[in-house]
Amino acid sequence: MFIKKQRLLTPGPTPLLPRALHAMMASDIHHRTQDFIKLYPQVLADLKHVYGTQGDVLITVSSGTGALEAAVSNFFSAGDKVIVLSAGKFGERWVELAKAFSLDATVLTAEYGDTVSPARVEAALKENPSAKGVFFQASETSTGAAHDVESIGKLCQAHGALCIVDAITGLGTMPLDIDGWGLDLVIGGSQKAFMIPPGLAFISVSPKAWAQGASATLPRLYFDLKKEKKMADKGESAWTPNVSLILALSESLKYIKDLGMDNLVANAQMLAHATRTAATTLGLELFAPNSPSSSVTAIKAPAGLDSSEIVKGFRNNFGAIIANGQGTMKGQIFRIAHLGYFDFADMFSLIAELELILHSKGVPVEFGKGVAAVQKIYAEAAFKKA
Amino acid sequence: MFIKKQRLLTPGPTPLLPRALHAMMASDIHHRTQDFIKLYPQVLADLKHVYGTQGDVLITVSSGTGALEAAVSNFFSAGDKVIVLSAGKFGERWVELAKAFSLDATVLTAEYGDTVSPARVEAALKENPSAKGVFFQASETSTGAAHDVESIGKLCQAHGALCIVDAITGLGTMPLDIDGWGLDLVIGGSQKAFMIPPGLAFISVSPKAWAQGASATLPRLYFDLKKEKKMADKGESAWTPNVSLILALSESLKYIKDLGMDNLVANAQMLAHATRTAATTLGLELFAPNSPSSSVTAIKAPAGLDSSEIVKGFRNNFGAIIANGQGTMKGQIFRIAHLGYFDFADMFSLIAELELILHSKGVPVEFGKGVAAVQKIYAEAAFKKA
Asked: Are residues B151 and B173 in the same domain?
């Protein structure tokens, strides 16, 4: 028996930034005192900095789904025409939300692993000139595919529809020019590239979204963003905040600002590139080869091998928690994450472990070949720079 | 300059149980793995044990207000007739929720510091035989007054209306026989008697509530309790849970179970009794003398003294954070909390500090007189038992 350090390497929750985790120990502060009112506006300002928008960025005490709901309930009315892109489990969540809140949704679906093209979005906007919003995922975490956010954002701008982006795994893994591309509502989550535990969600709101929201009649109170904004302007939160996670976020945002959001994105992109290269070098097939996300790489299990066996192999042999497929993709694919606090050390061991697991399952593998592919990418990127 | 240990002594957030706080450091587990699925059902079972109900008890990742919203959106339809008791800032939140979700609310108000009598509730139920629910606070945290939950619960039972109790500061501070008294929805919050930071809310659901919910048409997704229940039955949460707080809750529930919920309630009641006695011994007036809550005691500032000065005195001289009045009560009252992890050591120092602060503001005080009143209560209760 060898020591197995348990490592959480999933596309959310992600590896925790130690200093952010430790900051939670100072949770005995009250949210209506100066202790908090010194902390919260700085957190909101840093979050806005990291989002890179001139619009508002607000925090909700909820999972990401709560902020997705806020994007619906604050800016739309029952019966509003909208367009929903559905290319995976999280696209299906938008569909579910649109239904729960009685929006009149035209759903553009793509096969798992694929994405909805901007051309299809444009055609749908032309067919539905009254559409008030387009909902989609920047990165569809369940399949590892990324939408063309820039093109879709610009189409929404041209057609006057709100552009609503679930960027829960997109933020910090791909460039998102929120103001330049016309992204009106951009949702993030604490347990993703923000490197802290789950429990907080974020949403940026453009002036155009606020204007549409002024006449939106869907019922809401807990997720009332106008109320949240009013309190945020006073340095407070509308409801009792999750103080422990605000403390953690304060630390992780400092880390991300010091690193630079561009570097965080570049880091994820480089790790994603290395993972794809290693996987194909080992003869494995990518699940979303045409529009791969940099937040997570979905890899097909070799023919005849259930991907659950690979996930279990990582866990049982090496203490590494990686993601299986979700829904019908379970057993078909496994997913390696890159969002947030991931580095090349994680990669070297993960690929070495993958080689050993494949070998143990009878898949022919040349030890070190996948690792060498990652090393080559590292050497080219890092030593060239130096 | 003396050392001032900062002490959080407010009616929520409350003093943190150290072992629960420390448990949050183990947050790097994934909510769809066995690590979590071993943890969560035990937490739900312990929560149910502590609630003392045969019904379901579910957890939402939100502040308490989120669970209040869930109590509205899951069990009612727009236009439903309901009765809302409003005796303080939290009663006003029920009114706000009823309005946001288009319920047809008959509002029974009481002056701050007072409560709505069961007789008034009975009259309202007779006048509104179609009323589908009665909403109120067990303990109105803003005024320190407690409603007669047993009588109101039994009236709801007799009239067939759902009984919806905001027990966010009631749980763990007063007896609540959920099943015996017919309390259909009972809401709690993590940062109260549960001794952990804010970010989780709890709601018990009776079979009668589930039955009414089956035909409820208000829109909901994030707070969809049917979905939550379905996942809870599988040992999981519907959305990504706040893992750090679930870990903390697991520890605090063990502590409360070991202590006994009855003893937690008795502890709060004894501290509340001692606080009231000390306050009146010092010549101060209680804000809710007729129906005092055991979660928090609201005390009027002496004539001519702004209660903010007392609150500041605690903070600046002794590092103790106590609560001011809320809304129009700010400056009029100060509030001493008893819910959760409070003990007699807290009381002795608080009352000694109060005596010093009053003295420093020119209020005539005999040092030690209030403390002696608390000591006497302790001696009678503890040494008699021994």
From this structure: yes
For A224, nearest residue in chain B (alpha carbons):
B100
Contact residues on chain A for B24, CB-CB shorter than 8 A: 21, 24-25, 197, 244
3-state SS, A316-331, equals HHHCEECEECCHHHCC
- Dump pLDDT digits (tens) for A70-90: 999 999 999 999 999 999 999
Give which of B221, B246, B326, B335 to mutate to test A binding, by max A Cβ within 10 Å.
B221
Of A10, A21, A223, nearest to B27 by CB-CB distance is: A21
Kindly report whether the peptide bond that precedes residue A219 is cis, defined as omega within 30 degrees of 0. Answer: no
* A234 and A341 together in one domain: no
A276 with A372, same domain? yes
Residue A381 reports pLDDT greater than 70: yes
Q: Both B103 and B227 in a single domain?
A: yes
Give CA separation, B295 vs A348, B110, B322, B340, in Å.
55, 19, 13, 9
Inter-helix orientation angle A344-360/A369-378, to 10°: 160
SS3 B305: coil
Give the Cα separation of A146 and A167 in Å (integer): 10
What is the count of structural domains for chain A? 2
Give the structural domain span for A289. 7-13+260-385
Tens-digit pLDDT profile for residues A256-266: 999 999 999 99
Read off the pLDDT of each residue in B345-359 and give the average, rounded to a whole number.
97
| Interface touch A63/B8, C-beta < 8 Å | no
Alpha-carbon distance of A289 to B256, in angstroms, equals 52
H helices within chain B, ranges in order? 18-23, 34-51, 64-73, 89-100, 118-127, 149-159, 207-213, 225-232, 243-259, 261-281, 307-318, 344-360, 369-378, 384-385
CATH of the domain at A354: 3.90.1150.10
Q: What are phi and psi of B358, to 5 degrees?
A: -60, -45
Which amino acid belongs to residue A208? K
The whole-model pTM stands at 0.96
What residues of B are in contact with residue A220 (Cβ under 8 Å)? 100
pLDDT tens for each residue of B225-282: 999 999 999 999 999 999 999 999 999 999 999 999 999 999 999 999 999 999 999 9
- Does the structure show a pLDDT above 80 at B385? no
pLDDT at A385: 57
Question: Which residue, of B215, B239, B259, is where some domain finishes?
Answer: B259
Residue B1 lies in a domain: no
One domain, residues B230 and B318: no
A208 and A295 in a single domain? The answer is: no
Task: For residue A188, tell me if it sits in a domain.
Answer: yes
Beta pairing partners, B300 = B333
Task: For helices A261-281 and A344-360, give the axis angle rounded to 10 degrees.
Answer: 20
Average pLDDT, chain A: 97
Question: In chain B, pLDDT over 90 holds for what percent of residues?
Answer: 98
Note whether B208 and B181 are same-domain residues. yes
B2 within some domain: no
Nearest to A243 by CA among B356, B29, B200, B133: B200
* Residue A188: strand pairing partners: A202
Beta strands A185-189 and A200-205 are antiparallel
Residue A331 located in a structural domain: yes
What CATH number does residue A103 fall under? 3.40.640.10
Which residue from A28, A223, A241 is facing B8, i.e. has the nearest CB?
A: A28
Domain final residue, candidates A208, A234, A259? A259
Question: Model confidence over A111-160: pLDDT tens digits?
Answer: 999 999 999 999 999 999 999 999 999 999 999 999 999 999 999 999 99
Q: Are strands A56-61 and B145-146 parallel, antiparallel or unpaired?
A: unpaired
